[in-house]
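U., I forgot to send this yesterday:
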Amino acid sequence: MAWEFIARISIVFILTVGGVILLQPVMTRLGALLDALALQKTSAPDDENRRLRNTVETMNERLTLMEERLDFTERLIGRGGAGGRTGSEDQ
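Result:
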């Protein structure tokens, strides 16, 4: 009975060592592949962030222009209602 236990333990030990020896190159390649994928994913957001930043800046410029136009229009409407007509109609 003790010999069977020792035999099973030695078989498990041999299979474990053999598995480690056989699978080490595979795991090394898999690790390199995962590192390459991680590097690729970290470099992609920089381009994406740059594109999004440019889009937000463009939208901000357009919004500022629209605010200026709205202020101008409100001033014209305010002047027209309180002080009469403006522009070429006065002449």
